[in-house]
Amino acid sequence: MVLWHGFCAAPSSVTTVFTEERREGVASFRISRFGDISHLFVKGEEPSFYARYCETFDSDEKRD
Fold first, then answer.
1. How far apart are CA 64 and CA 60, in angstroms?
2. What is the pTM of this model?
3. Where residue 63 falls among pLDDT bands split at 50, 70, 90?
4. What is the pLDDT of residues 16-56, one digit of tens each?
5. What per-residue confidence (pLDDT) applies to 62?
6. What is the DSSP letter of 59?
C-alpha cells in the first residue's frame, strides 16, 4: 500500500483499464496505462502541476 500512496493521475490524464477472462466466467481487471499525459505533449500543452510537489526540497516550486 505504501507504493500506491505515491501514485497520481494528473487532471486530464488518461487511464486505460480493460478486462480479460482468465477463467471461464471470471473477469480480471488490468491497467495498461495509468495517468498517461502523452496526448498533451503531442499538442504542445504543458501538463498541470496539481497533485505534484517539487523535485528537490530547496526548490521554489509547490510545497505540501
1. 12
2. 0.62
3. low
4. 999 999 899 999 999 999 999 999 999 999 887 776 666 67
5. 60
6. S
- Yes or no: say if 13 and 23 are a contact pair by the CB < 8 Å rule: no
Cα–Cα distance, 60 to 44 (Å, whole number): 24
Cα distance between residue 26 and residue 30, in whole Å: 13
pLDDT at position 38 is 93
Nearest residue to 41 via CA among 14, 8, 6, 7: 14
Grid coordinates representing 62 are: 509547490
CB 13 within 8 A of CB 37: yes
Q: What phi-psi label fits residue 51: left (phi over 0), alpha (psi between -120 and 50 degrees) or beta? A: left
